[in-house]
Amino acid sequence: MSYSTQGRSPQEVYQNTQPHQPRPPVQFFNNGVLGIRLVDAIAGHVSGLHEAGTLAPLTGANRITCRINWPGYESWSDGLHVVDHNTQPYTLARLAQVIAKTIQKFCGDNAQVRTREPRADWAVNSIPFESLYLLEIRHVSSGSWQPVISRVL
């Protein structure tokens, strides 16, 4: 199977009215290709994840807000802890896992919600979760990050 950036979710980027200094996106390269399958991240199958054991570059954050603007659905967010029980920042692998679980929660919360999107190809209940990939997370406001999601085409 392969996917491409053409299969990216056409999410609107979250807009915040407060000024912030955006950080570079956190990208997830798996076996040399941008993107990790969500089900693999959730299961901890990250042997091919580049720099999986390095600390996630979320400088000083103990908690972040994950924002999803999936086309056809209400804007959705969830607060996430991004430090372990020893107050050490999560590794890139653990961050991928937590973000993937959050996307799974979003999909579950919206599985029975009728999409307002005229293009049904991004309706949550019509896309197998197994076909979704996490490419990166973007810093969209102070303390808020938005996942960039793709799917197998």
From TrEMBL:
This is Uncharacterized protein.
